[in-house]
Amino acid sequence: MPTDCIFCKIIAKEIPSDVVYADEYVTAFRDIQPAAPTHILIVPNKHIASINDLTEADAHLLGKMNFAAKQIAKAEGVDESGYRLIINTGADAGQIVFHIHMHLLAGKKLGRLG
Fold this sequence. Notes:
alpha+beta; 2 helices
């Protein structure tokens, strides 16, 4: 675990956060600068900087993240109305923290992309 990764520190409970889901593979917590009424970050517990650093051995973690997203959406009451999942990869895509993370956005009409 890199000592300077804020998400690794949240997973290790070194930094307080509003955790909404955690298991042996994934931790999810509310974004401190929400872009929607429901804005939750879903991260693998293993530090992987970006999708570009994902190995075949770690590919199952993306499935775990998606399954956690489904469970979180239901718990948050947004599974029926809809939610958006976003993974930014690299600086040009808007990735700021270099630890793979998925944004779950919901709670309002999000509009079209592009």
